[in-house]
């Protein structure tokens, strides 16, 4: 009974964890924005950036997707904007499957936002710290000094061994299969009864008309 209840609560727990993560991300971005606005004079570009995972779990040998978002909340165009996250994903610990860990945009206009995604594949197993990516840019077209900033940091996570991941989370697939089976039964049986009744009615109608 306890196992059945735990399985039923899997999806609400995942949803709650996801909502909690996005609320935390919004708070971090807001705090970063307020701090930047206090310490940076206007009449310049101000880049705030976020970094977060689009994958629910990091698993050895499986694709792990990181997403980056950069926003220019200033009133000038940011020039030669560079995102560098090579230190967070060393090649001895991660294989780069798709995308680049160092990218550049020639300019980001005021109010504009850009995004970038990278797919990596963990080589190692265990705890891992997902640090912030570095952002560099010139705050205006005539600026001489480069400005340095950072994205939000996802923090410490855990990379599962593939066998452990399948053993621990494969139960969720079973829950979904049971759900689909129950829905199918509740849908197919009424439809079959209705179709049988309709067919019998269609067969009786011509005989009544002939009489």
From TrEMBL:
Transmembrane spans = 173-195
Task: State its location(s).
Answer: Endoplasmic reticulum membrane
Protein keywords? Endoplasmic reticulum, Glycoprotein, Membrane, Signal, Transmembrane, Transmembrane helix
Extract the signal peptide range: 1-16
Report the GO terms under cellular component: endoplasmic reticulum membrane
Please give the InterPro entries that the UniProt record associates with this protein. TRAP_beta
> What is the membrane topology noted in the UniProt record heading this document?
Single-pass type I membrane protein
Keyword match Ribosomal protein: no
- Record bears the keyword Ribonucleoprotein: no
According to its UniProt entry, the function of this protein is described as: TRAP proteins are part of a complex whose function is to bind calcium to the ER membrane and thereby regulate the retention of ER resident proteins.
Q: Which family does it belong to?
A: Belongs to the TRAP-beta family.
Protein name as catalogued: Translocon-associated protein subunit beta
């Amino acid at each position: 009974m306890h196992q059945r209840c735990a399985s039923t609560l899997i999806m609400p727990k995942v949803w709650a964890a996801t909502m909690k993560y996005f609320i935390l991300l919004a708070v971090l971005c807001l705090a970063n924005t307020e701090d930047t606005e206090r310490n940076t004079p206007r009449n310049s570009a101000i880049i705030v950036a976020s970094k977060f995972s689009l994958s629910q779990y990091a698993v050895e040998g499986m694709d792990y997707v990181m997403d980056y978002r950069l926003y220019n909340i200033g009133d000038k165009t940011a020039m030669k904007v560079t995102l560098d996250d090579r230190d967070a994903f060393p090649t001895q610990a991660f294989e780069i499957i798709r995308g680049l860990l160092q990218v550049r945009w020639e300019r980001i206009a005021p109010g504009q936002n850009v995004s970038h995604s990278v797919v990596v594949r963990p080589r190692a197993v265990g705890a891992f710290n997902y640090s912030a990516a570095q952002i560099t840019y010139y705050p205006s077209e005539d600026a001489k000094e480069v400005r340095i900033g950072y994205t939000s940091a996802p923090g410490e996570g855990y990379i599962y061994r593939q066998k452990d991941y399948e053993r621990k989370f494969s139960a969720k697939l079973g829950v979904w299969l049971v759900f689909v089976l129950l829905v199918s039964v509740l849908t197919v049986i009424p439809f079959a009864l209705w179709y049988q009744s309709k067919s019998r009615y269609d067969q009786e109608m011509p005989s009544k008309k002939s009489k």
